[in-house]
Specification:
Blueprint (H helix, E strand, L loop, with lengths): L2 E4 L4 E4 L7 E6 L10 H19 L3 E6 L6 H10 L3 H18 L15 H13 L3 E4 L2 E4 L36 E6 L14 E3 L1 H13 L3 E7 L3 H16 L5 E7 L2 E2 L18 H7 L2 H9 L7 E2 L2 H19 L12 H12 L4 H21 L4 H13 L8 H24 L3 H13 L2 E6 L2 E6 L1
Parallel strand pairs: 3-4, 3-9, 9-10, 11-12
Antiparallel strand pairs: 1-2, 5-6, 6-7, 7-8, 13-14
Helix pairs in contact: 3-13, 4-5, 4-6, 5-6, 7-13, 8-9, 9-11, 10-11, 11-12, 13-14
């Protein structure tokens, strides 16, 4: 049986879905104020592997991942660049989807945007106020933390020892310094929505409660994210959701991945606002998706990690060994090798709270077995099939490193295609044809249709 370590209980517990054979999983998505970095990739790869392994074990998955498209930093950027928030959000959503595809991360079944759930947020806030768990002051609404007896159970922080943390506002109007914002009153130049308390916008934490409860119900199986959002974000989410519904636990397994640092000497995690990060686009421009995945999966998902170009290059060579084991033709004759024990080793590793380092080691053992079998003149087809099957569970594509070049080139090709479209609309057909001819020489083919222009490499 698969055992997962639940952050709430700090225990490895056998995993079974709460409803039939369907696993309902919510993963905290990106805040859309800038490009995602490799630290984000670590988290999304971990939950991609969890989803793939659950599918491998025969479960149906309903995977929801949100987009935070209204939040303080997006508003700050919109004011700086004098652009609407929806334009900024759309820009980074498109980039995010391209980069997730580039990393061979399966797309979630639903990507709710926070701004589409504001009526639901207002409904939840009203319900909390009706229970005496929230209060309004001058158009601001706060959650009354001491009204929720279990507050602190996820982060293991006693109430009286807690201090205000990231995104917990210091406001003298609060009844208690630990009370957190559910609704913020409108400020000049900021986007705002009507509410019973006047124009305003939601606080950050209420967004995920509204989306998860709406799409997955009052109790669901897995909630994922990085260890940096255990407190205050997920702690507040528990208080809101369980306080509103009266159903506990709202989440049966809280799964949190360790954080990625830029270097071994860094004390802080990668963050966009401090600038100490490697963007996913830059990483994919240098390395294949398989090498990046092998590097990130070579440590246990709950462990902290430092980014290392040298290690990724080592895993690039390792990925080549796996590709070569699959690429070379299978021996036509000889006895087939017994590979069942490799599958057993792989499953034992993954069942033990997703022990991907052991699982990765099993893949390399399989690749060596292919080579030994080929030298001995045996049939390696079963071993190759097993290697491909188990590698697929870890999300390996077995594609050449050139695949990364396509991802890195995509935004530039998109731009050229857009320019060509505008030239055609302006009836400057000679210039438009010139762009098409140059792209064709670079191996990019275009397909025009009434719905627009699509392109592909090769």
């Amino acid at each position: 049986m698969l055992k997962l370590q639940d952050t709430l209980t700090v225990q490895k517990t056998e995993f079974t879905p709460s409803q039939g054979n369907t696993v309902r999983m919510y993963v905290c998505g990106p805040n859309l104020y800038g490009p995602c970095h490799v630290g984000h990739a670590l988290s999304y790869i971990v939950f991609d592997v969890l989803r793939r392994y659950l599918t491998y074990k025969g479960y149906e998955i309903r995977h929801v991942q949100n987009f935070t498209d209204i939040e303080d930093r997006i508003i700050e950027l919109a004011l700086q660049e004098k652009r609407p928030i929806h334009e900024i959000s759309e820009q980074y959503i498109q980039r995010f989807m391209t980069e997730m595809d580039g990393l061979n991360i399966l797309r979630a079944h639903e990507y709710p945007r926070a701004t589409a759930y504001i009526p639901r947020m207002i409904e939840i806030i009203q319900g909390l106020m009706g229970k005496g768990m929230a209060y309004e002051v001058e158009g601001e609404v706060y959650f009354r933390v001491r009204s929720f007896p279990g507050y602190g159970k996820l982060s293991k922080r006693p109430m009286d020892e807690m201090r205000t943390g990231t995104r917990v506002e210091v406001d003298p109007r609060k009844e208690d310094p630990m009370d957190f914002s559910l609704w913020k009153s409108a400020k000049e130049g900021e986007p705002a929505w009507p509410s019973p308390w006047g124009l305003g916008r939601p606080g950050w934490h209420i967004e995920c409660s509204a989306m998860s409860l709406s799409l997955l119900g009052q109790q669901f199986d897995i909630h994922g994210g990085g260890q940096d959002v255990v407190f205050p974000h997920h702690e507040n989410e528990i208080a809101q959701s369980e306080g509103y519904t009266g159903v506990a636990p709202v989440v049966r397994f809280w799964i949190h991945n360790g954080l990625l640092r830029l270097a071994e000497t860094d004390d802080e995690k990668m963050t966009r606002h401090s600038g100490n990060f490697i963007s996913i686009r830059d990483a994919l421009a240098k390395h294949s998706p398989d090498a990046i995945r092998l590097f990130l999966l070579s440590a246990h998902y709950r462990s902290p990690r430092a980014y290392s170009e040298e290690e990724i290059e080592n895993y690039e060579r390792g990925a080549d060994r796996i590709r070569n084991a699959l690429r070379e033709p299978a021996s036509p004759g000889g006895a087939a090798m017994d590979v069942a024990h490799f599958q057993q080793e792989f499953e034992e590793a993954m069942d033990d709270d997703l022990n991907t380092p052991r699982a990765v080691a099993t893949l390399f053992d399989l690749a060596r077995e292919v080579n030994r079998g080929r030298e001995a003149g045996g049939s390696v087809a079963p071993t190759q099939a097993m290697l491909r099957k188990l590698g697929g569970v870890l999300g390996l594509s077995f594609a050449d490193a050139k695949a990364a070049d396509n991802v890195a080139a995509q935004p530039f090709v998109d731009l050229l295609v857009q320019v060509r479209t505008e030239l055609r609309q302006a009836k400057q057909f000679a210039l438009a044809d010139s762009i098409r001819d140059r792209l064709t020489k670079l191996g990019v083919s275009l397909e025009d249709s009434p719905q627009g222009t699509k392109w592909k490499m090769g």
